[in-house]
């Protein structure tokens, strides 16, 4: 595992807590859980929103690709290529409908939002959100990306 920055930690915390507050009751937020895509392909998104009926209890160690509604990766200096190129291809190929890539723009969060286009099986960009993340999909959400109290 690569060394993580405080930005990485705080960005995950901010988004995780915000997602807890808005995720629909038929979904759950999980952190750094394995998704088994293939026998040797088992990525661990920083955050994921999964279907609640796929949550099997305290001993569960993995989810199936069809369980994942949203995958979130916070880019770190050691993970730039994986988070920007490799993981989006894997996640889209596995059928994850939504992907967020979080970038550090001079200490501020920039959330790049992608949606999977079923015809091509690839992600298409839906926007870059700074200061405020307001979306209707995969469920209604509003997150203040500038609130430093949410980071601590």
From TrEMBL:
Keywords: Endonuclease, Hydrolase, Nuclease. Pfam families: Uma2 (PF05685). GO terms for molecular function: endonuclease activity. Residues 1-145 form the Putative restriction endonuclease domain. InterPro entries: Nuclease_put_TT1808 (IPR012296), Restrct_endonuc-II-like (IPR011335), Uma2 (IPR008538). Transmembrane segments: none annotated. The keyword Nuclease applies. SUPFAM superfamilies: Restriction endonuclease-like. The keyword Cell membrane does not apply. It comes from the Bacteria. This is Uma2 family endonuclease. It comes from Kitasatospora paracochleata.
């Amino acid at each position: 595992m690569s060394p993580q920055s405080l930005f990485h930690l705080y960005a995950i915390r901010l988004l995780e807590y915000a997602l807890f507050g808005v995720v629909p009751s038929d979904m759950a937020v999980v952190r750094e859980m394995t998704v088994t895509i293939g026998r040797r392909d088992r990525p661990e998104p920083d955050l994921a929103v999964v279907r609640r009926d796929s949550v099997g209890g305290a001993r569960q160690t993995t989810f199936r690709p069809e369980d994942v509604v949203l995958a979130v990766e916070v880019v770190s200096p050691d993970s730039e290529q994986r988070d920007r190129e490799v993981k989006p291809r894997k996640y889209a190929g596995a059928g994850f409908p939504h992907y967020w890539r979080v970038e550090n723009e001079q200490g501020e969060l920039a959330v790049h939002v992608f949606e999977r286009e079923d015809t091509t099986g690839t992600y298409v960009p839906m926007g870059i959100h700074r200061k405020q993340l307001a979306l209707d999909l995969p469920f209604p959400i509003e997150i203040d990306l500038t609130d430093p109290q949410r980071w601590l």
